[in-house]
Amino acid sequence: MAEIKSTMEMVLERAAKMAAEAPMETDRENLTKTGMRLAADFLNGKIDNLQEELLKQPAESQVPLRRGMVQTLLRNIILPRDESGEEGAGAIKGILMLAGNGGEISSICGELQQILGQYGQHRQQSIQQLDEAIRAQLEQQQMAAGKSEGPINPTMHPQYREELTKMLTNLNGQYNDALDQRKEMIMERLCPSF
Questions:
Q1: How far apart are the first and last CA of the chain?
Q2: For a FRET experiment, which of 23, 124, 140, 150 has its CA 20 to 30 Å from that of 7?
Q3: Can you tell which superkingdom this protein's organism belongs to (predicted)?
Q4: Helical spans, DSSP H, in 44-58
């Protein structure tokens, strides 16, 4: 009977320990969310310097705040949707602030900027190549049929949308994988343990 009692005591002790740790997790989660909001404010131009905001906080709060900031910043580094390619510039600037313009993080951020720039160029080249390929195919079909209907617009061809979607899906996958690798490296270096 004594064995059952000691097992019961161990279960109760463990439950008490878990209950004591639970509020700490909630505090940590709240601080992480606060860090996310601060980073969003930075991206929206409401805060000028994330590092200064972080240093204003108590030392014990800084790790979860930094984690929230970094998570939000990394989520905002995305492939450009248009020719400007400015989507990730503010987020990269924020990461560099939090890193104190550290050498390794600076190098990784440089790689991110290079990937984003290459993506825009690669996307444009791929679309141009698709346009040329479909135009050549349509011109060949017209010549074989003995017709000449004037200028050819490859984007009007039914196959164009399908080929464009396949090409962009493949291209986006490759570049997103490269971005994700760099983002993981940044997260590991700026928020090593949580």
A1: 42
A2: 23
A3: Bacteria
A4: 50-55
